[in-house]
Design goal:
Its main location: cytoplasm. The protein is globular, with a radius of gyration of 24 Å. The chain has two domains: 174 residues, Phosphatidylinositol Phosphate Kinase II Beta, CATH 3.30.800.10; 204 residues, Phosphatidylinositol Phosphate Kinase Iibeta, Chain: A, domain 2 (2-Layer Sandwich). A hairpin with a 5-residue loop joins strand 5 and strand 6. Helix 1 runs antiparallel to helix 3 and helix 7 runs antiparallel to helix 11. The longest helix is centred in the N-terminal third of the chain and has 20 residues. Helix content is 34%, strand content 17%. It is α+β, with helices and mostly antiparallel strands. The termini are far apart.
C-alpha cells in the first residue's frame, strides 16, 4: 500500500504509539551499543535502519501487544555522536525514554504535533511532518559541524530521529532537550519572533493556566524588558547572533525564542502565602521529584550561553535550576529559561504566494515572511534591544559612598555604563546608548 503521511488526530491509540516508540528505541540503542565507537563519516548522515516488530515477536524483537509495526532509525551513528557530545550515556538515554511511561503534554503548539515529555523531565518527544524530518536529515552535516565548533547554543538539541510505521501510516518523531523543566514552575511564557503582525496570544490560549504569550503581549506587559547582568547579556546576545547566522545559512526562518520566566520573589511570596492559607494552587515550590541534576551537558539555559561558567559565586540557591538570573521591571528576581524553537521550517517550504500578496497589503516591516537574512536580523535586534536589556549598574537610588554597591564592578571608572554620581538615570542611559551605538551599528531603537 501507499504510505500516507500521518496526521496526529487519527492516531493509533496513544498508548500503542508510546509503546512502539519505547520498544523501538530500546532495540536501536541496544544494537548500537554493540557497534564499535568510530568517527562519524559523511555517509552516516544518510543511513536509515529499519526493523520489523511483529506482535508475536521475532528472533530479534520481543512479542508485544501494540500491533505489528516497523521502526526506523535515521542516522544512528551521527545521533549517537550528538548524544555523546552532550554527555548523554546510552543507559541514561534508555532509562529516561523507556523505563517509565511517557507523559503526553496537552497540545502546546499550533503545529498539530503531539508532544511527550519523559517522566524525569529530561527529554521531549515531538511528532514531525515528513517535510520536517527530511529537512532535519539535510541539516545534520551542517548541524554537526556547528556543534563541533560551538556547543553553547540555544538551538534545539536533537538526540534522535525515528519513524514508527503502522497500518499504512508513518509517524515520525524527534527526541530533543526539554527547555522548560516541569519541576520549576513558570509564571510567564513567551513565544517571540520579533514580528508584530498578528503576534498576540489568542483568547483560547489566554484561558490556560500559564498561557504562551507573543510579541505584542510582551511589549505591552514588559515595556522595560528583562534586565540582565552585563556579562549574561553579552553572552546571551553573542549566542543568539551565532545561532541566527547558522539558521540564516540554511535559509531557515519563522523560528521563535521560547522564554519561560520563573519569578523567584513571587514564588517565595506564594510559598509563605501557602503556609498561612493552608495549601496553594500548585505553581509554587520546585518539585521534589528532581533529586538528580540534568543528565545532558550544556542543556540548561545558563550553560547554553556560558558553557562551564557556573554562576560567579552568587548566593542564590536556585542556581542549580539552570535558569539565567535576571530582574523584571519591578526589580523582582526572576530566572529565565530560553531556547530557539521551530527551526525545521525552511524558507524553501514556505508558500511562496504568501509573500507576494501580503506585501501589497501591509508595509514591509510587519509581514512575517521575508527572506532569512532579514528575519535573522530583525529577530536579533528585537531580542537584544526590546526583550533583553543590560542592567545599568549604578542607579542613583542605590548609590553608596563605598563604591562597592554593585556586585561585579571590577574597577569603578572603566565601564562606560556606570554613571558619575551627579548624573540622572536619563543621562546614564544616554551615555549607555551612545556607547552602544559605537559598538553596534544598530544602536537601540527609541523607546
Amino acid at each position: 500500500g501507499v504510505m500516507t503521511d500521518f496526521a496526529p488526530c487519527d492516531i493509533t491509540p496513544s498508548s500503542a504509539l508510546k509503546g512502539a516508540i519505547q520498544l523501538g528505541i530500546t532495540h536501536t540503542v541496544g544494537s548500537l551499543s554493540q557497534k564499535a565507537e568510530r568517527d562519524v563519516l559523511m555517509q552516516d548522515f544518510y543511513v536509515v535502519e529499519s526493523i520489523f516488530f511483529p506482535s508475536e515477536g521475532s528472533n530479534l524483537t520481543p512479542a508485544h501487544h501494540h500491533g505489528d509495526f516497523r521502526f526506523k532509525t535515521y542516522a544512528p551513528i551521527a545521533f549517537r555522536y550528538f548524544r555523546e557530545l552532550f554527555g548523554i550515556r546510552p543507559d541514561d538515554y534508555l532509562y529516561s525514554l523507556c523505563n517509565d511511561p511517557l507523559i503526553e503534554l496537552s497540545n502546546p503548539g499550533a503545529s498539530g504535533s503531539i508532544f511527550y515529555v519523559t517522566s524525569d523531565d529530561e527529554f521531549i518527544i515531538k511528532t514531525v511532518q515528513h517535510k520536517e524530518a527530511e529537512f532535519l536529515q539535510k541539516l545534520l552535516p551542517g548541524y554537526f559541524m556547528n556543534l563541533n565548533q560551538n556547543k553553547r547554543t540555544l538551538l534545539p538539541k536533537f538526540y534522535g530521529l525515528y519513524c514508527v510505521q503502522a497500518g499504512g501510516k508513518n509517524i515520525r518523531i524527534v527526541v530533543m532537550n526539554n527547555l522548560l523543566p516541569r519541576s520549576v514552575p513558570m509564571h510567564l511564557k513567551y513565544d517571540l519572533k520579533g514580528s508584530t503582525c498578528k503576534r498576540r496570544a489568542s483568547p483560547k490560549e489566554r484561558e490556560k493556566s500559564v498561557p504562551t504569550y507573543k510579541d505584542l503581549d510582551f511589549i505591552q506587559d514588559m515595556p522595560e524588558g528583562i534586565q540582565l547582568e552585563p556579562d549574561n547579556y553579552n553572552a546571551l546576545c553573542k549566542t543568539i547572533q551565532r545561532d541566527c547566522l547558522l539558521l540564516q545559512s540554511f535559509k531557515i526562518m519563522d523560528y521563535s525564542l521560547l522564554v519561560g520566566i520563573h519569578n523567584t520573589d513571587q514564588a517565595s511570596r506564594e510559598r509563605s502565602g501557602a503556609v498561612e492559607g493552608g495549601g496553594s494552587e500548585g505553581a509554587v515550590t520546585p518539585d521534589h521529584r528532581r533529586p538528580q541534576a540534568q543528565k545532558a551537558l550544556y542543556s540548561t539555559a545558563m550553560e547554553s550561553i556560558q558553557g562551564e561558567a557556573k554562576g560567579k559565586g552568587t548566593l542564590e540557591t536556585e542556581d542549580q535550576w539552570g535558569g539565567i538570573p535576571a530582574r523584571n521591571s519591578k526589580g523582582e528576581r526572576i530566572l529565565i529559561y530560553i531556547g530557539i524553537i521551530d527551526i525545521l521550517q525552511s524558507y524553501r517550504f514556505i508558500k511562496k504566494i504568501e509573500h507576494s500578496w501580503k506585501a501589497l497589503v501591509h508595509d514591509g516591516d510587519t509581514v512575517s515572511v521575508h527572506h532569512p537574512g532579514f528575519y535573522a536580523e530583525r529577530f536579533q535586534r528585537f531580542m537584544c534591544s526590546t526583550v533583553f536589556k543590560k542592567t545599568l549598574k549604578s542607579s542613583p537610588s542605590k548609590k553608596s559612598r563605598s563604591g562597592c554597591s554593585s556586585v561585579v564592578r571590577r574597577h569603578p571608572m572603566g565601564s562606560s555604563a556606570s554613571a558619575p554620581s551627579g548624573q540622572t538615570v536619563a543621562d546614564a542611559r544616554l551615555m549607555y546608548r551612545t556607547h552602544l551605538s559605537q559598538t553596534d551599528s544598530e544602536g537601540e531603537s527609541g523607546e
